[in-house]
Amino acid sequence: MKNLTRILLLGTFATTACQTFLDERPKSFISEEQYYKTQADAITAVNAAYFLLNAGGTTIQTPYNTLFNTGMNFAGDDEDPGPGATNADVRSLAVLAHSSSNQRVFELWQQHYAAIKKTNVALEKIPAIEFDAALKSRLLAEAKFLRALYYFNLVRLWGDVPLITSNQAFVQTTDYAVPRSSARAVYAQIEQDLTEAATQLPAAYNAPDAGRATEGAAKALLAKVYLAEASLPLNLTENYQKAVQKAEEALSPADGGTGTYSYDLFPNYADAFLPATKNGREHIFSAQFKSNSLGQGNFQNPRSIYTGIPGLTGLYTDQVRFYTKGSDRFFSVYKLYRAIDKRKKATFVTKYVSPANGRKYGLPIVNPAVANDSTPFFNKAWDPNSLAVPGESAANVAILRYAELLLIHAEAENEVNGPTAKAYRSLNRVRNRAGLPNLTPSLSKEQFRDSLYLDRRLELVFEYQRWFDLIRQKDGGGTSTFVRNLQAVGKTNAKEFHRLYPIPQTELNSNPQLTQNPGW
Fold first, then answer.
1. Residue 354: which domain range?
2. Residue 380 domain-assigned?
3. Total domains present in the chain
4. The pLDDT value given to residue 59
5. Considering only CA atoms, which of 512, 511, 514, 487 is closest in space to residue 498?
6. pLDDT digits (tens, 9 = 90+) for 69-110
7. Is 212 within a domain?
8. Are 246 and 218 spatial neighbours (Cβ–Cβ below 8 Å)?
């Protein structure tokens, strides 16, 4: 993506506690009034909002470059911090012992609002700049898309949050104190931003700008937003039909939609993650990564690799969550896959080949219940061309894939009309690519939902989706399955209040208008 993986932040923001900053007197300073004057300035302003999706390296974690893992995924039922994850805040989150002072929780809040600040600056400053009208409209639409995405993450993590849609440039610190808006108000703004963005975004880009927000991405994300609103906790069930309709606007005609975006599944599941096929037919919107470009590789890669392999630097900070099921004390999401499921080998590896000596390395498990059992390692950030420096992986992070759009369509259609032919068609498309047969016909609505939930989990594992699914999914009686799912993997302390994160204590201290979520 042109400039998106190398544009520097306009201004600084606090990140991880271990980051250091140079303490120098600035030689010069360019104010906002002086800066936003040219077309190049407008492009840079929007690029800065993209940058906070994936900035990274060894000192910074941003949402789609490891922070969603250390600050969210570990709290779920598929992952745990591995031996290389020694941070106390990360490990407390993984056992649901976190508090409002947790650093990772604070960073998630802070970085999303830092990104929203960038979008608001762009939306305020760009209209006054004189340059090509079509490009101006597109850039403003990109900023709205990104603002909607950032708020969508915030409202799902915290519920009611401050809704800031203008550039705050106050003198008094007290002017920055903003109360929480209701989740429904935040969702209304998200819907408005995506609806407006879809009318101005292009269907596709030329190669230098591949990866920017498109018209199809805005419609597909809006379908996902409607599905979230129709689910728990809002339970606005009338939005299931809106999710169906919006998904069909993005689905290709071959899949029963009216979309003209040429979306499709890759025949090979692994191609959805390999750098060689990124920004392809299945990728609706992704966080972009690039090797050897100012440290903008996908740092999730070395975090998933086992340690001690000659010629391959692995940190093993991310591991599957093991729990007891029957006589198997090392059960995990890895064992939920059927033997014929092609997704299993693309999602996990059990052996690494050393680039130094060609030998295979893995981690056997002393597990009497399963002969020759081995530890599975997550593999979706793997870059076969970055063996020497795994942290420079060029593997993108899929924020929204066509496979998920099909699953959104199938789920929403089932909730509206039961398991119709449309619902079966969309779900079976995903299953068939995985090598699985068509789903059993004539299932009940509840049986179809359960099957879809399982396929959604197996399709999207390690893609920063599971926690968001855990907090919204329900059983046939409409009751949340959140606590039940977490307790099933040994998190017996899970409570309903864990579905929302605590408002960071630092924010409560600096903003007297904020209130804490119940239970915290």
1. 305-388
2. yes
3. 1
4. 67
5. 487
6. 999 999 999 999 999 999 999 999 999 999 999 999 999 999
7. no
8. no
